[in-house]
């Protein structure tokens, strides 16, 4: 990740190193992003998450189906590639009693957590070699509303699951070894829509109450609160770059925001979409911001240069219905998108 400009952060936005010319040219060209694979379900697909190594991804849908698919080989991808079906290596029908709203892998790639509108979280241990589940699922039932997002973090040697959603507006921290909640984070006055962690003890939450809150696992109260850009709109999605310096957010009023975490100030808000922005994610080096919207489009915004000035954006993918989630591959300039059109699609750049 690049450094801050030598000028005081109070007066200058975080700056970025230039990406390689090859990536820079490719990423700005809409025609070069190719739909590599596409999986269709019988109902809307809400949730997708990459294995930390990037060779698999997990998919959860409104049909209650959980699938794990192989990520395709894109090394020799051509721009005239014909979209194919992904290889499904594991699937389970009726994984929940309701729709699967969110999904996450732990950092070791051994645990998969899902949250649902049946108010439960399920955690399964996945055998990466045999492509099957090792042992029984663990079910958490302490939420009293739809579980909207889950993320894994680590505390010393323990895996922790952070979860939030509708109901009591609390964010729960659960020890995956014992299955017991060890902390309830209180402060939001509306449903929790989004959670994101970028390493260490810190994570951020986005809420229907039009605030994002930064939390430290070692305390139960938020350490800082970020207000939505005026006139104010719920935070549908939040994400922080790996350096912990910049927050990006997507909002129901079509706004996206970039926020300087250390300087505690908004860098800018902009509108790359014409519909509710349900997903926002930085690329691996935070050169680009990927956003998906109810306007059926996935947009790439170039974050190089001065973040206080207008940023170029280009549509890089489209669905036939609302886009719900987008997730970058952990090490390649490729991403997954899910949609109400009942598909999850893998997009990548063809080889030069």
**Beta fraction of the residues?**
over 45%
Mass-distribution shape: globular
Return residue spans where pLDDT drops below 50 for at least 5 consecutive residues: 1-31
Distance between the termini: 25 Å
Sheet of most strands: 5 strands, antiparallel
Quaternary structure classification: single chain
Radius of gyration over all CA atoms, rounded: 19 Å
Task: Tell me the number of strands.
Answer: 29
In DSSP terms (H or I, runs of 4 or more residues), the helix count works out at 1
Look at the structure and give the mean pLDDT: 91
In percent, how helical is the residue content? Answer: under 10%
In terms of structural class, how would the helical and strand content be classed?
Answer: mainly beta
The SSE string, one letter per element, is HEEEEEEEEEEEEEEEEEEEEEEEEEEEEE
Description:
This protein has 352 residues and is mainly beta. It contains one helix and 29 strands. The chain has one helix at 21-27, and strands at 34-40, 45-50, 56-61, 66-70, 88-92, 100-105, 111-116, 121-127, 132-133, 138-140, 147-155, 158-165, 171-175, 180-185, 192-197, 202-207, 211-216, 224-227, 235-240, 246-251, 256-260, 265-270, 277-282, 288-293, 297-302, 313-318, 323-328, 335-339, 343-348. Strands 6, 7, 8, 9 and 10 form a five-stranded antiparallel beta sheet that branches. A four-stranded antiparallel beta sheet has the order 1-29-28-27, with no helix packed on it. A four-stranded antiparallel beta sheet has the order 2-3-4-5, with no helix packed on it. A hairpin with a 4-residue loop joins strand 21 (256-260) and strand 22 (265-270). It is globular and about 50 Å long. Mean pLDDT is 91; it is low at 1-31.
């Amino acid at each position: 990740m690049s450094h801050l400009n030598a000028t005081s952060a109070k007066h200058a936005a975080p700056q970025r190193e230039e990406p390689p010319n090859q990536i820079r040219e490719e990423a700005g060209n809409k025609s070069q992003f190719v739909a590599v694979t596409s999986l269709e379900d019988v109902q809307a697909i809400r949730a997708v998450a990459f294995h930390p190594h990037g060779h698999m991804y997990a998919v959860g849908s409104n049909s209650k189906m959980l699938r794990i698919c192989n990520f395709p080989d894109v090394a020799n991808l051509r721009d005239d590639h014909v979209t194919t079906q992904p290889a499904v290596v594991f699937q389970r029908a009726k994984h929940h009693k309701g729709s699967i709203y969110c999904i996450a892998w732990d950092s070791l790639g051994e645990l998969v957590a899902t949250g649902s509108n049946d108010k439960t979280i399920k955690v399964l241990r996945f055998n990466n070699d045999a492509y099957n589940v090792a042992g029984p699922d663990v079910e958490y039932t302490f939420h009293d509303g739809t579980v909207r997002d889950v993320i894994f973090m680590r505390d010393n040697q323990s895996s922790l699951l952070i979860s939030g959603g509708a109901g009591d507006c609390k964010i729960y921290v659960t020890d995956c070894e014992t299955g017991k909640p060890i902390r309830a984070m209180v402060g939001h006055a509306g449903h929790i829509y989004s959670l994101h962690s970028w390493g260490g003890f810190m994570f951020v939450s986005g809420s229907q109450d039009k605030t994002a809150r930064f939390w430290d696992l070692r305390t139960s109260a938020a350490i800082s609160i970020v207000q939505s850009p005026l006139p104010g709109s719920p935070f549908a999605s939040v994400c922080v770059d790996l350096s912990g310096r910049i927050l990006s957010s997507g909002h129901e009023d079509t706004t996206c925001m970039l926020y300087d975490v250390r300087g505690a100030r908004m860098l800018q808000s902009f509108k790359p979409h014409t519909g509710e922005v349900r997903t926002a994610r930085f690329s691996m080096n935070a050169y680009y911001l990927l956003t998906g919207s109810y306007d059926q489009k996935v947009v790439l915004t170039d974050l190089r240069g001065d973040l206080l000035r207008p940023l170029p954006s280009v549509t890089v993918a489209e669905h036939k219905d609302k886009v719900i989630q987008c997730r970058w591959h952990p090490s390649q300039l490729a991403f997954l998108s899910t949609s109400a059109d009942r598909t999850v699609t893998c997009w990548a750049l063809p080889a030069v």
